[in-house]
Amino acid sequence: MKNVTIKLLLLTLLALLGVVFLAGCNKQPANAEENTEPQVSNTPGREFDLGGYTIKIAQWWDGNPKDRKAIERYKAAEEKYNCKIQYVTIAWDQIVSKYISSVLSGEPIADIALFEMTMALPVFAESDLIIPVDDYFDFNDPKWPPIIKQTGRYAGKQYGFSNASWNLSGIYYNKELFNRLGLPDPYELQENGEWTWEKFLEIAQKATRDEDGDGQNETWGLAIQAHNLYSPLILSNDANIINIDDNGKASFALDEPNAIEALQFFGDLYNKYKVVVPATNETDWYEAPQRFSEGNIAMFFGQSWDGEDFKTAMKEECGFVFMPKGPKASDYVVPVLQESKIFVMPKHAKYPEVAAKVFEEIYLFNNDLVGFEYWIGSFLNSDEGKKTARQMLNKGKVSMHQGYPTFDGMLFENIAGEIITRKVPADIFIKNFKDKAQRAIDSEYE
């Protein structure tokens, strides 16, 4: 699976740092009372004068401004606060470990760092590696994407922030195959409010065909990437996997009727209706999109990066629509899992107040529609798909369960083993799984 067991990584790094310390490292330990704003110079005409200090922003791609207006914003902020702004580019698979080790040393690698949300929360908050930012930003300002109250908030405090939230995921469908098989267009169903689980299943059944009578299906209704459809189905039926209260207490939520209904539907797609193309390796995150791109599978749930790959690999045009609505849902939602990104500020940050001001001045907020249109054009061709993408803004529904990696791994393995392979009914599975699942959740951050 893509998610990293951050808790284990943290403990490993702590152990390694302890060994270094015992071996005679003479570096003075960081002051535990840090995160009070150091004194900055007061210069006439400047609210804050950082004296040439470099505000660093860490992420896994080059964030340096490219267009003229962005460059002007950066230069204006540098002049206003007498500072420099620098991006620190760190590989995706290294940014967590480098961030942790730098904060534990008392010298954070950056003033602001970007992470996939469940790489940062709850683990960084529970481990005292990030600071709340409620005092530095006014999150009542409507410029902030509403979803950050879901993706960046934990235990009653706001830790994560983002200028924009372009969380797009949904069903890709092969338009040429749909036309050849005479299947109804999901986009038209969506626009009429009729894109439901029932219609989704109906299409998947009609698309699963043995066209030459040899006992082998030539076309399939659906490809599922490493069983990743159960979470979107749960969210699309007005349910969730875990609930977290304002005290940070996480509770198992799959025993609620809507969630059980979603898990049963997920299992039925495999075992009752048999519309899912069989996987040769159920943990291979690349097999299902590769199979879909070959042109004989009707539908695939995916992210924006999947669309980029399909544009390159497929001669057929793809449509793009919301996840279908479950029976208990009143509206379409965009499932938001670990891929949603948030910025955080580290413990021992030197100038968090000024870093916050710089952030607000260099980034465009949710009104950056030019950037959004350019981005969706990178993975969507059709006007209908782009219209859907616009409708998806502010439709996100978040699950934080991947922030509890022990539970997340256990859930994946048990759903694959019990519901898919052994065909255990969802209600019985949940009855047997609930207590050990809650124990795993509770033990994650003891």
UniProtKB/TrEMBL annotation:
<protein>
    <submittedName>
        <fullName>Extracellular solute-binding protein</fullName>
    </submittedName>
</protein>
<feature type="signal peptide">
    <location>
        <begin position="1"/>
        <end position="32"/>
    </location>
</feature>
<dbReference type="InterPro" id="IPR006059">
    <property type="entry name" value="SBP"/>
</dbReference>
<keyword id="KW-0732">Signal</keyword>
<dbReference type="Pfam" id="PF13416">
    <property type="entry name" value="SBP_bac_8"/>
</dbReference>
<dbReference type="InterPro" id="IPR050490">
    <property type="entry name" value="Bact_solute-bd_prot1"/>
</dbReference>
